[in-house]
Specification:
The complex is a heterodimer of chains A (420) and B (411). Chain A is α/β, with parallel strands linked by helices. Chain A is built from nine helices and 33 strands. Chain A folds into two domains: 5-263, Spore Coat Polysaccharide Biosynthesis Protein SpsA, Chain A; 282-415, Hexapeptide repeat proteins (UDP N-Acetylglucosamine Acyltransferase, domain 1), CATH 2.160.10. Chain B folds into two domains: 4-257, Spore Coat Polysaccharide Biosynthesis Protein SpsA, Chain A; 285-410, Hexapeptide repeat proteins (UDP N-Acetylglucosamine Acyltransferase, domain 1), CATH 2.160.10. The chains are: A alpha/beta (420), B alpha/beta (411). Strand 14 (281-283) of chain A pairs antiparallel with strand 16 of chain B.
Chain lengths: 420, 411
Amino acid sequence: MKGTAAILLAGGVGSRLNILVRHRAKPAVPFGGIYRIIDFTLSNIGNSSMTSVAVLTQYKPLSLMDHIGDGASWDMSGRSRSVKIFPPKTGEEDWDWYRGTADAVRQNISFVESAKGNEIMILSGDHVYRMDYRDMVAFHREKGARVTIATLPVPWEDTHQFGTAIIDNDSRIVEWEEKSPRAKSNLASMGIYVFDRQYLISLLTESKEDDFGHHIIPQALQEKVVYAYAFDGYWRDVGTVQAYWDANMDLLDPASGIDPEMWGTMTNINAGGSICDRPPVSAAGRARIKRSLISPGCTIEGRVENSVLSPGVVVKKGASVRNSIIMHDCIIGEAVEIERAIIDKEVSIGRDTAVGIGDAGIANREHPKHLYSGLTVIGKRTVIPDRISIGTNCIIDPMLDESAFPKEVKSGSSVTRPKP
Amino acid sequence: MAQVLAMILAGGRVGELDVLTFFRPKSVLPYGGLYRVIDFPMSNLMHSDIENVGILSQYRPFELISHIANGEPWDMTGRQRRAVILPPFQGRGSSDWYQGTADAVYQNTDFIRMNDPELVIVLSGDHIYRMDYRTLIEFHREKKADLTVAFTRVSPLKDSSRFGLAAIEDEDPRGGKVTEYREKPKNSNLEWASLTIYVFKTELLIAALNDNATHASHEFGRDIIPMLLKKHRVYGYKHTGYWGYTRTIEEYYRTSMDILGYRPKVDIRSWEIRTNMANDGIRDRKPAFVGASARLKDTFFYAGCSIEGTVRNSILFPGVSVEKGAVVEDSILFFDSTVKAGARAKRTIADSACTIGAHADVGGPGDKLTVIGMGTDVPENVRIAGGVTVHPKLKPGAFTKPRYKAGEVIQ
């Protein structure tokens, strides 16, 4: 595999993650306490002994670039190993934002041309899973394929979100449907491709189309050279608030099949350049922790149940955190009660405040498709005052100060930055 | 501070730490649920902008070498910065193991000359403390001292015979001239104990080491300080912060427990200590999982831990697993140790990768600590009293009795 290069599409806006992607691209969204979503793909690359990766970014790439650094965290730095970040660039004629996945690769065709090896992998940084890409490349070679797509069966009701494949007895894809509401197969594309390198170059030069799923794959299908690689492990597209919360909660269930440490998932713990390493977790006083993941540097004096805490979270005495995801360095004040909330980094919550308590039946008014199941989301670095209540399905913007809050934030409502 | 070179004596194993130093020098003894003892002087140096460090070690240096790595954990890499381990080497004449603290530095005179510093600060790698060495160096320069030694106040007579003790003139709240110094005196009313932190003018250090090289004994405390006291300006700097020893099992345990509780003596959250997160794979461990049946009180734990049982007043290093029904109290469990279902550990220090078998009962209830060496598998149901020493790498078959009494050594 030393020869196989990878292109990692990390440009995703992920707008359904709402305020979690206000300041960062979807692949950079924190996940599982210490990870970011892109860590799973980067770790798969490192663990598959691949040595050359191009990361294509375009949407708010700063925290992603800081996180990836020189790639050393995934053992991708050295004289013969590299992670290169390719932001969109001005073309000869006009300003060329990536118009789609195929377009992004086309604009960096020189990376494909100069890569070593016969195959190249196209990956996305949006998914949580573990795969040894070497097995997929071996399958690709064994089948004599020119394109191989990793697939897995999804529930029938979800097929409209995916490209789906109908295969023959030899795993060759004979028909492809892109996000069809009445799909004939539930074998969904995971957005992971192996291409014969030269074949990819010719596809992208001959066609001017912008998207792999919609255009490039159907074209290759006509030549009957596309195969489906079957994957059956844990895989999640955590592109919605609900799916994101569900996948984090899966970490608390040993039977769910997700286990980042066993998977060999690596992350960059140094991003952000802190002066010291995170100290051990301190469970002090009346701390009561049940069925939760607690990251280094947390100080727990209250109750934490069914929750995932990132590094540096402080839960003060009398506070109670249930069924929630709390990101880095949040401070949960005394006697605060939190239920089913996703709280972004560095949020501070004043004492005796309640979050996520109330009738879960009222979907968020501005974003009913994002928040409908009772989850409340709080944006990065917001300061929430003492003694207020925030209901369910609420969206609280990032960077708000105490003056932005009424005494009660009713279920289904949002608190936004006042327009200047 | 490019003009200051640090030399850390990370040296030997100490007989008194027994099984904990069978496979590692004392300077890399795990401490505080994450760290190694040497992280404290290394982090102090980093925060003091002293970025050229030689580390002297001769006993089983592998863990030390992999821990220090290229100095990168403490930002000591780059064109002007480095941390290097200086092992003993064969001279042209004889095989030269380090014959004492002063000899270790003497044998690396070339290294000092190559760095060409104005001052050399000599430290030990076996204390837990926080100090800004810049304050000490400022004091040294202000007093135009030839040698400055840091001291902490101890109760006279009680602790005295284990330390180098001094009388210091009261010319300044920070310290003053050393008027008397005695190494490990039997009876003494001197109340300032040496912290074995020395700031030397480079030329004086080299001259003193050359002079001492012809003598039979080569220790900073016993030989160098008394020698210099006669003719040179030797100053004592009074350290007022926390000072923790780790030279005996009891000391190590006490210093460890100082990290726990309300307003702990070692407030690790404010000390800004760095360690090597790549060592022992710390950085690749997932957040600690605390299960539905866990009970925790006044406990430190780290990523990679899995806790289903009860843990009170204890320190768990990365990867420790405490199974359902197990009870861990007043104990320190190093990396990747496991306490099986229904087992009990009290006042026990278990080194890395130990297993305490199901329903085994280890340590307590008395005062004496039980220590289990690295990688030992304590079998199910066995009862091991407080004050037992268990050797490393034992298989369950090595435990021939169902019960062990205080003072026994299982090997």
